[in-house]
């Protein structure tokens, strides 16, 4: 019996890589975007005889992680819309967006400039000091999201040439519409009726 190539170890590895890339890419982008809206730093603003608590969100610290997450999400979708060299380019963009998200998150983990800006806006004067500064774990979680995006990009670079593309599916559909007949599926009722109309035995 001839083995089914779709059940070969390499085919299974390709399908597994496809599933993991989709999971890692979508989850990574979601984690980065959610983290951007959370508090990354907090402290007390002192100035003009007043003292008020201030916080800085991830988007206030840096807009780069969330922007790169959106780029990565778009690249994840585009991977299946192109083939050949285009797929390599898009997969590289996906990996680079993950790497950039990691770097931006790690740089923002200890940032205090955003707190200074928030303190000035809160107190209303420029001569403000921020004390009792502390940082949350959200920048590190954002970096984890970037790592997932990076892994999705590396999987696309390694296995993407074997993945199906939307364009090839549309090309096949176009050929059927131009006069070819799509292969029938014996499990679909409409195909069974068409076979009967043609005088064929669908069983």
The shape is elongated
| Share in β-strands | 5-15%
Mean pLDDT over the residues? 84
Structural class designation: mainly alpha
- The tally of helices reads 8
Quick one: how many beta strands?
A: 3
SSE pattern: HEEHHHHEHHH
Physical arrangement of strands within the biggest beta sheet: 2-1-3
How far apart lie the N and C ends?
23 Å
Low-confidence parts, pLDDT < 50 over ≥5 residues? Answer: 1-7, 168-173
Helix content: 55-70%
Radius of gyration, CA atoms, in whole angstroms? 26 Å
The biggest beta sheet is recorded as: 3 strands, antiparallel
Task: Please tell me about this protein's structure.
The protein is mainly α and 203 residues long. Helix content is 62%, strand content 12%. The chain has a three-stranded antiparallel β-sheet. Strand 1 and strand 2 form a beta hairpin. The two termini are 23 Å apart. The N terminus is likely disordered.
Compile the SSE list and pairings.
Elements: H1 9-36, E1 39-47, E2 50-57, H2 58-61, H3 64-78, H4 85-108, H5 113-123, E3 129-135, H6 138-159, H7 166-177, H8 189-197
Brief description of this entry?
It contains 8 helices and 3 strands; from the N terminus they run αββααααβααα. It has 203 residues and is mostly helical.
Task: Looking at this protein, list some descriptive labels.
single chain, 203 residues, mainly alpha, three-stranded antiparallel sheet, 3 strands, elongated
């Amino acid at each position: 019996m001839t083995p089914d190539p779709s059940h070969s170890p390499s085919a299974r590895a390709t399908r597994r890589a496809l599933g993991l890339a989709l999971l890692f890419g979508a989850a990574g982008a979601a984690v980065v975007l959610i983290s951007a809206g959370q508090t990354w730093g907090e402290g007390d603003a002192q100035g003009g005889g007043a003292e008020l608590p201030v916080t800085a969100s991830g988007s206030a610290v840096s807009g780069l992680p969330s922007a790169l997450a959106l780029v990565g999400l778009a690249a994840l979708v585009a991977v299946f819309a192109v083939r050949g060299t285009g797929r390599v380019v898009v997969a590289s963009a996906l990996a680079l967006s993950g790497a950039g998200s990691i770097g931006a998150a790690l740089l923002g983990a200890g940032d205090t400039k955003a707190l200074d800006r928030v303190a000035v806006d809160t107190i209303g004067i420029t001569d403000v000091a921020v004390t009792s500064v502390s940082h949350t774990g959200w920048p590190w979680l954002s970096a984890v999201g970037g790592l997932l995006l990076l892994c999705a990009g590396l999987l696309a670079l390694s296995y993407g040439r074997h993945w199906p593309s939307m364009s090839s599916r549309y090309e096949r559909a176009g050929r059927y519409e131009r006069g070819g007949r799509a292969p029938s599926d014996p499990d679909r009722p409409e195909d069974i009726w068409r076979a009967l109309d043609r005088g064929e035995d669908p069983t």
